Amino acid sequence: MVVSGTESGHGTFSFNNGSQGSNANGNFLYVLPMILEIVPLPSNGTQLQFDAKMETIFDPLTQASWVADANLAATKTFGLPRCAGITDPPVQCVNGDGSMTWDSARQFIENMNAAKYLGRTAWQLPPTDPDCDSSFNCNTISKYNRMVALYYLQFRLTAGTPVIPTPNTPVGPFQNVQPYLYWGCNAATIQAPCSQMAPPPGLQWSFSFGNGFEGTDFVTNMLYVTAYFPGSFLLALPNPPVPVVPGGHE
């Protein structure tokens, strides 16, 4: 999920593993808008609360209200076009799965406020705690770490636990493909360092099986890993049994 950011990179939070980090502005991530207003009626409890129309969710722990549809952009883009291509998408667009770049996320929120979505004009991206670097469960009581509070305090998840477990559904002949980011490498040979066409310092290539986007990620981020080797590899099958012919010999 995209949170607050700068011109070169933005803060992020992963509901896949509970890590707070950062990402390059050109990568496609998801957006969960929030507002610093008590939308539903106040309650004495600390549990998440729906408003009357079940459109927003209020967190008493952080005094923030969230859009109940955690991927609103998949169905509502507030005037932003859908990304038409992989190699040269529009500067500001939303992928069909709801993911978008940092610049698009800022415009998405601006358009959301201009449209007075749910009658409000103060929607924003969740802030990042300036005292926290890339980490797990950093200062969950901070007023900045509202996504962290959702993950660890409200959902009661532990670091490394996906908010929704990924089923081991076969994808062709593969098993256990994660719909998330995997580390990549660009090297001259299989055993060579990942230095050929290297990204800027501190970044490395990645590929998402969640939306098919190839880009770069900060090396401190937590991504999945798979491996391959060149050439083919055929399993040696045991010799088939020799059939027995009735009245004859094997």
| Count of discrete structural domains | 2
What order do the strands of the largest sheet run in, or round the barrel if closed? 1-2-3-8
Tell me, briefly, the overall form.
globular
SSE arrangement, N to C? EEEEEEEHEHEEE
Classify the beta-strand content into a percent band: 15-25%
Which structural class do the helices and strands define? mainly beta
Cα end-to-end separation: 66 Å
Runs in which pLDDT lies below 50 for 5 or more consecutive residues are none
Number of helices: 2
Biggest sheet statistics: 4 strands, antiparallel
Q: From the alpha-carbon coordinates, what is the Rg to the nearest angstrom?
A: 23 Å
Q: What's the number of extended β-strand segments? A: 11
Mean pLDDT: 84
Helix content estimate = under 10%
